[in-house]
Amino acid sequence: MVGRTAHLRTTFDAVAERYDRVRPGYPRQTVEDLGHLAALQAGSRVLEIGCGTGQLTVPLARLGTTVTAVELGAALAGVARRNAAAYPSVQVVVGAFEEVPLAEDAFDLVVAATSFHWIDPATRLTKSARVLRPGGSLAVIDTHHIAGGTDQFFVDVQRHYEKWDPMTPPGLRLQGADAIPVARPDLEDRDLFEPAVLRRYEWEAEYTTSEYLALLLTYSNHLALPAPQQDGLISGIRSLIDTRFGGTVTKRYLTELRVIRRRTPHSDRPRSR
Ligand SMILES: C[S@@+](CC[C@H](N)C(=O)[O-])C[C@H]1O[C@@H](n2cnc3c(N)ncnc32)[C@H](O)[C@@H]1O
Predict the structure, then answer these.
(1) What are the structural domain ranges in the chain?
(2) Ligand 1 atom 6, closest CA
(3) 52 C-beta closer than 6 A to ligand 1
(4) CA of 53 to the centre of ligand 1 (A)
(5) CB distance 148 to ligand 1 below 6 Å
(6) How many whole angstroms from 273 Cα to the centroid of ligand 1?
(7) What backbone phi and psi angles, to 5 degrees, belong to 248?
(8) Distance from the alpha carbon of residue 149 to the mean position of ligand 1, in angstroms
(9) Can you give the residue ranges of the Ribosomal RNA adenine methylase transferase N-terminal domain (predicted)?
(10) 213 alpha carbon to ligand 1 midpoint, in Å?
């Protein structure tokens, strides 16, 4: 991994405690569906990629699974260990998934929650397949910010991004879930995996001004802004929420769960690629 992505994926570690405080977990139905689709049971062996401070790790441990979590950031890993302290079956390893040595065929589930996009696309599917037992599942959870909630705020806030963040495309507008493509060619490998089963969950969260600003300061693109731009952006958004929206905004999320089974030696192979 090189360049901007390699830098951005390290930014969360400096704000580990804030990340833990303000980043949401996952809808209960998502965890239940993951358990069913991956046929998890007590003692199932789970490898979690990029666990953060344990947003999914703890619900997985509650299902009785044994979780090995590989987390790039040492501070994030420390908070995840603290959050999972009641579950001796959780082990958090500090390192990059691409580099950490892992046994072959050792896991029933490999799962990445809002983290697979940070893993090197050249190796993430092949390494996941290698560590899964045949018939085991890879689950990828993605989080999208979609249209809804305090709609007008998200229209009005755009001018602050255009002023302070050079990476913001002009005129950007949030899209509804229907406009988010269902197909994910980057998660397809017909030799290694069967087609994905997709589930989608829409939900909302309400934030006070200070909670919303803290949330923004856990996103890699906001964290990577030079201090003067970050300060300008944050103070503009603070004033917008306080003066025009009564100190509260609601954000609408789309959580996507894709579960992809590793082919077994007996699976029907595709005839052509
Ligand atoms: C957006 S956060 C998601 C954290 C958590 N899973 C959640 O649901 O909130 C992405 C996480 O992936 C971790 N990460 C990024 N690249 C990684 C890599 N190559 N190997 C392991 N973890 C990585 C980051 O440190 C961060 O904790």
Answers:
(1) 3-147+174-206+253-261
(2) 51
(3) yes
(4) 9
(5) no
(6) 32
(7) -145, 140
(8) 27
(9) 30-145
(10) 21
Phi, psi of 269 (to 5 degrees): -85, 145
| Beta-strand pair 132-146/197-208 | unpaired
pLDDT value of position 4: 87
pLDDT tens for residues 138-178? 999 999 999 999 999 999 999 999 999 999 999 999 999 99
The pLDDT assigned to 273 comes to: 44
Q: Are 129 and 237 in contact (CB under 8 A)?
A: no
CA distance 247 to 148: 18
Q: What is the mean pLDDT of residues 28-53?
A: 98
**Selecting from 3.90.1150.10, 3.40.630.30, 3.40.50.150, 3.40.50.450, what CATH number does the domain 3-147+174-206+253-261 have?**
3.40.50.150
Is the Cα torsion angle 140, 258, 216, 80 positive or negative in sign? Answer: negative
The overall average pLDDT reported for the chain is 96
Query: With contact defined as beta carbons under 8 Å apart, do 101 and 131 qualify?
Result: no
User: Is the CB–ligand 1 distance for residue 56 below 6 Å?
Assistant: yes
Probe residue for ligand 1, chosen from 7, 8, 9 as the CB with the greatest number of ligand atoms within 8 Å: 9
Q: Are 156 and 242 in contact (CB under 8 A)?
A: no
Residues contacting 135, CB < 8 A, separation 6+: 261, 262, 264
Q: Is 259 exposed, middle or buried (CB count within 10 Å of its CB: 0-12, 13-18, 19+)? A: buried
